[in-house]
Amino acid sequence: MTSNDLLAKSKKHLWLPFTQMSDYEKDPLIIESGNGVYLKDIEGNTYLDGYSSLWLNVHGHRKKEIDEAIEKQLQLIAHSTLLGAANIPSIQLAEKLVELAPEAITRVFYSDSGAEAVEIAVKMAYQYWQNRGYENKKSFVTLSNGYHGDTVGTMSVGSIELYHKVYTSLLFDAIVIPFPASKEEQTESDLCRESLKQLRELFEAKHEEIAGITVEALIQGAGGMNLMPKGYLKGVEQLCKEFHILLIVDEVATGFGRTGKMFAVEHENVQPDIMTVAKGITGGYLPIAATLTQEHIYEAFYGEYTDLKTFFHGHSYTGNQLGCAAALANLEIFEKENIIQQVEEKALFLEEQLKHVAELEFVGAVRQLGLMCGIQLVQHKRTSEPFPWEQRVAYRSTLKMRALGMLTRPLGDVIVLMPPLAATNDQLKQMVDIMKEGIMEAATECLEQQV
Ligand SMILES: *Cc1c(COP(=O)(O)O)cnc(C)c1O
After folding, report:
1. CATH number assigned to the domain comprising residue 53
2. What is the best residue among 122, 145, 147 to mutate for testing ligand 1's pocket, by most ligand atoms within 8 Å of CB?
3. How far is ligand 1, taken at its centre, from the CA of residue 448, in Å?
């Protein structure tokens, strides 16, 4: 097929996720191949992968060890079901995940995407209390602006108005508490203390009906890269223990080195009852996800079949061998190449580079944890006044960046920078330079169009 054919057929038959297809028609893009931190389209243009192919990629594309692990597994078998039967790579990966995860985690329940991992966590937490005879513990607490996926269950414990509002009557009710966002004239420790005080009041009043709380680890991703005040997640953990509420931590975006630790909960030594992982688990290769639990969760489901405690949940491709083999190879590279320490160093370098971005007139805030960054765009730094949303300044900035040789996506007025962990300092600098230029071009254009 020629590239013109491909373009025409993509417009005729595809329906892309999180995409207004009229936007795609105006600015289509078809990727043909990738290598390292670069992607190449069918016209032969190359781009820096500034969003790790949507927060997934770790060691770059076509990483030799992962390619080979998949080929090797293919010689044995591509897939057999995990329903009632294990397979070799799923066992090896489970052992590895338990070794890497916080100490209290002992069990691995596989699925295929982050949303499924969270959906499973919610169902597990719900049934956990039912199985144990606490029939009133049925509701969930979640943070405003939280994002846990796009299925009906995960939208119910999510709280992003733009994505979720239209489905309101389809969703179950969750108790939404405000994300501890810093306000002016409030120190981080005051914010932390006051937010935890409010949560304590909620737990005191309602703990008998609350099954669990879902929370992203330290930084909200899709909600716009919002950082929690230090100590908040630890405080949530302590309140959960005190009031017998399950702590479900979503590490889908933050897991596997993204924040400078293997898992973001390590920054505060938090031990979730249930923890969800996906995205980086296979190095960005194949759709594997997992819901990790402490042993007490598992035990609440264990018994004779006739006890009716079984967790009746599963997906056709759960525990896929090719995916687990890719994940194992991915995790081996973490050790071999000392990735976590490298991320810590690269994050410091990136922080320095981002200072130049923070100075721009159109940048209201730069938020960063490890190699996870959000750049908030505003019309005027001094007033923090946003651009009219219809102007889509961040989206337009990303189109400019594409023309300059880097791909990423916006979240509202926030530009995401999530480079593969393998990006070198030189490549990080190039990404930041392109980002600066893209922001300036688009923001200037937006202002011009207002007069
Ligand atoms: C991406 C994401 C999800 C959903 O994962 P999918 O694989 O896209 O279903 C859930 N939680 C968080 C924190 C995420 O960033």
Report:
1. 3.90.1150.10
2. 147
3. 37
Q: Is the CB of 118 under 6 A from ligand 1?
A: yes
Q: Give residue-wise pLDDT tens across range 110-147.
A: 999 999 999 999 999 999 999 999 999 999 999 999 99
Residue nearest to atom 6 of ligand 1 (CA): 114
User: What is the C-alpha to C-alpha distance for residues 244 and 238, in angstroms, rounded to an integer?
Assistant: 10
Spatial distance between the Cα atoms of 380 and 364, rounded to a whole number of angstroms:
8
What would the mean pLDDT of 436-448 be, rounded to a whole number? Answer: 97
For 242-274, the pLDDT digits (tens) are 999 999 999 999 999 999 999 999 999 999 999
**Do residue 194 and residue 275 come from a single domain?**
yes
Of 148, 249, 263, best ligand 1 pocket probe by most atoms within 8 Å of the beta carbon: 148
Residue 184 — very low, low, confident or very high, per pLDDT cuts 50/70/90? confident
- Give the bridge partners for 411, in sequence order: 414
CA-closest candidate to residue 177, choices 211, 203, 154: 203
Any ligand 1 atom below 6 A from CB of 121: no
CA distance 59 to 37: 8
pLDDT at 183: 78
Number of independent structural domains in the chain: 2
Q: Is 66 in the pocket of ligand 1 (CB under 6 A)?
A: no
Encoded tokens for 165: 């509002």
pTM, two decimals, is 0.97
Domain range for 293 is: 67-336
